[in-house]
Amino acid sequence: MRKLLLLCAMSTLLIGSMFSAITYAEEPKIDDGIAVTGWIVGTTNDKTIARPKEWTPDINNPKPESQVVQAILETNAYIPCYIRMDINGNDAQATVESFGPGAISTNGSSTERYLVFDNEIGGFCDSNWKPIAAGKNAEVRPGNDVYIRGCDSFKVMVYANDSFKYDVVAGPLQKVDAVANAGDANLALDMRTQLDNGPWGAVVTFASNSTVNIGEKKACETLTAMHQFRVPYKTTTAQGHYKGNITFKAYLI
């Protein structure tokens, strides 16, 4: 029993000697039987473990775009060209369209729909396009201020998704079975145009085959033109049938 008490006493002295230099943190009382040793600088036991001084906690709700992966893909679009022309007049409508480069669309002359200059269905007008009379036996004398109007006005609408121009190509009407070797050799064609609901423009005379530019537009715009035509009824205009062509032409520029 004495040996056990002696051993306990020696152990107490040894332990007290070992920890006598340690400072106890947050220890307001020294006699409550509780000893708390604060964290002090020590040594690292495993040198292979990463131990950065600063690090980011992996919380469940990170800030927006705090961690991103992305791939950039270049995009290219190639839009084909398109052009459309609508012609209204003479109780009919024609639509001509071109889809894509190199596509030339032509609506040829119709044997059922055509522009007629006649004293009955076109009628006579003066140099100001004012109607004079119309009828099979209308009593209108030929003269330098007398014309026969076309049977209708023609409305042309052109749209394209690229810049474009719109022209009218025409020439004088040639004799078919009119009196030969008498009077004028052919029948000149007059035209006037109202562009985009503006005023009527000056009269253009097709005394020979020629091209008249009516207007041009930027991409994705629409051009609207109203055309009226007439032929002269002069003392030098021989009786009979005359024939010609008018081409409404739109094209990209």
Describe the secondary structure blueprint for this structure.
Elements: H1 2-18, E1 82-89, E2 92-99, E3 124-125, E4 131-133, E5 147-149, E6 154-160, E7 164-170, E8 173-175, E9 186-187, E10 189-195, E11 204-206, E12 210-217, E13 221-232, E14 242-243, E15 246-252
Antiparallel strand pairs: 1-2, 1-6, 3-4, 3-5, 5-13, 6-13, 7-12, 7-15, 8-9, 8-14, 10-11, 10-13
Description:
By secondary structure, this protein is mainly beta. The chain has a domain at 82-252. It is built from 1 helix and 15 strands; from the N terminus they run H-E-E-E-E-E-E-E-E-E-E-E-E-E-E-E. Strand 3 (124-125) and strand 4 (131-133) form a beta hairpin. Mean pLDDT is 85; it is low at 1-25.
